[in-house]
Write a structure and sequence with these properties.
Olfactory receptor 1G1-like, G protein-coupled receptor activity, membrane, three-stranded mixed beta sheet, 3 strands, 11 helices, single chain, GPCR_Rhodpsn, 340 residues
Length: 340
């Protein structure tokens, strides 16, 4: 009788040991699939039983994100009333979010579907380059949009002069140029590194810090440069955002009517929501030394800014904006009329 109780109590432990053994064998099988020059993206491979659920979840988020951002671009392009600086920047942001999602998620879905988690050295560097460039571009565009709202609310009489079409194009072009220059400098440095025997990256894409932990070369110069670029491309735009909204809030508090305050807050609230999510996750992951980097925290935060934020952007910017809702309804009405 007592032996039966002991065996009955041992069953959960033995089941856990079997599960861990199967997960370890699954990861080892993935390691055996790769060549010496390849990297392994082991992000979700330790839990094979969860992968069908993750595949469905990520595929749904990817499709909704791409469709939503493309709809915003089409709505802004088709409505003459939205051909203003604010919506010009929003269309650029939606385009960047679409490219950003397409840089990461298709490879994640392919890895889960085929169970082949290998990525070539060149492919890994290319993915890292576009990830960094588009993240930096997102960062700069959010700062430009905050500046645009500052001029519109605090300097309304000078808005058309300051935010003229030429200046808007210049701001967007400068954002594209700076983001690609900063990303290319770090990618070129990373391409010179030699990597240790283990090429397994505990992440679902080629992110900067997980790759840095695998490098056998001296990374001190790279880390100094990385933190310098983080200060330039993170702290400076964030300071611009904070100063812009400090002036905006000060101006709003001087508005006498409650209706006027509500209108201004509703205009800026959507942008502030995106800024908080974006900077919160980035600072959580990247403003720390590579020695203290946590793969688990990095993966969770990465899911937020690679999948969740691009998914939420179309809803945040359209559901709280009467002009965008009108443009989207007009787009659907024109499509319906063309099909009849």
């Amino acid at each position: 009788m007592s032996s039966q109780r002991v065996s009955g109590r041992a069953n959960p432990i033995s089941f856990l040991e079997v599960s861990e053994t199967e997960a370890g064998q699954h990861v080892q099988e993935i390691r055996n699939q790769t060549s010496v020059s390849d990297f392994l993206l082991l992000g979700f491979s330790a839990h094979p039983e969860q992968q069908p659920l993750l595949f469905g979840l990520f595929l749904g988020m990817y499709l909704v994100s791409v469709l939503g951002n493309l709809l915003i671009i089409m709505a802004i392009g088709s409505d003459q009333h939205l051909h203003t600086p604010m919506y010009f920047f929003l269309a650029n942001l939606s385009f960047v979010e679409t490219c950003f999602t397409c840089t990461i998620v298709p490879k994640v879905l392919a890895n889960i579907l085929t169970q082949r988690h290998a990525i070539s050295h060149t492919g890994c560097l290319v993915q890292m380059y576009f990830f960094m460039a588009l993240t930096l571009l997102d960062d700069f565009l959010l700062a430009v949009m905050a500046y645009d709202r500052y001029v519109a609310i605090c300097l309304p009489l000078h808005y058309t002069t300051i935010m003229c079409p030429q200046r808007c194009l210049l701001l967007v072009a400068a954002s594209w140029l700076c983001s690609h220059l900063l990303a290319s400098s770090l990618t070129l440095l990373m391409s010179q590194f030699s990597f240790c025997a283990s090429h397994a990256i505990p992440h679902f894409f080629c992110d900067l810090l997980p790759l840095l932990k695998l490098a056998c070369s001296d990374t001190q110069i790279f880390q100094v440069m990385m933190f310098a670029e983080a200060a330039l491309s993170g702290v400076v735009p964030l300071t611009c955002v904070l100063l812009s909204y400090a002036h905006i809030i000060h101006t709003i508090l001087r508005v006498p009517s409650a209706g006027g305050k509500h209108k201004v807050f509703s205009t800026c609230g959507s942008h502030l929501s995106v800024v908080t999510l974006f900077y919160g996750t980035l600072f959580l992951v990247y403003f720390q030394p590579s020695s203290t980097y946590s793969a688990e925290i990095g993966m969770v935060a990465s899911v937020v800014y690679t999948m969740v934020i691009p998914l939420l952007n179309p809803f945040i910017y359209s559901l709280r904006n009467r002009d965008m809702k009108g443009a989207l309804l007009g787009l659907f009405d024109s499509e319906r009329c063309s099909t009849q």
